[in-house]
Design goal:
single chain; 139 residues; mainly alpha; two-stranded antiparallel sheet; 5 helices; 2 strands; elongated
Length: 139
């Protein structure tokens, strides 16, 4: 399965911190599917170059980092466009502390940061902020 590289060279792509503000030229971005990563590491495990457990952990970590990076990029794009960041918890403003706390463990690091920033600017509930920080410290 071939690896696709972006070849876009639009204004702002050359590390100028364009719309995404990443400072990375788009020609340096690579897109891989979870299946391709898993297949490559499965092959390494079969050849004895990695243990199966290490290969699976690496796949999970690469996918997590990719998701976190995508979330961060989308947040920067929203801010650049002047759009408010989307909260990952529907109806957040109406939820109690207990209801929010139940939903937090399912969130990614960027989502937790987004909820934390929103919470600080609005209700500023100490127990919600403490729960978020605890989860961020563990990840």
């Amino acid at each position: 399965m071939p690896v696709r590289k972006s070849s876009s060279n639009r204004a702002g792509d050359e590390g100028s911190g364009g719309a995404g503000g990443t400072g990375t030229a788009s020609r340096d971005l690579v897109q891989l599917t979870r299946e391709r990563i898993q297949a490559t590491l499965d092959e390494a495990a079969e050849r004895g170059r990695a243990t199966r457990g290490d290969a699976n952990e690496l796949v999970a970590e690469l996918v997590r980092r990719g998701r976190d990076g995508t979330d961060d990029l989308l947040d920067r794009a929203r801010r650049t466009a002047g759009a408010p960041p989307a909260l990952p918890i529907a109806g957040y403003a109406e939820l109690t502390v207990g209801q929010v706390a139940q939903k937090l463990p399912a969130l990614t690091r960027p989502q937790l940061r987004r909820v934390r920033d929103y919470e600080r600017r609005h209700a500023n509930r100490k127990s919600v902020l403490a729960a978020i920080e605890k989860l961020l410290d563990r990840r």
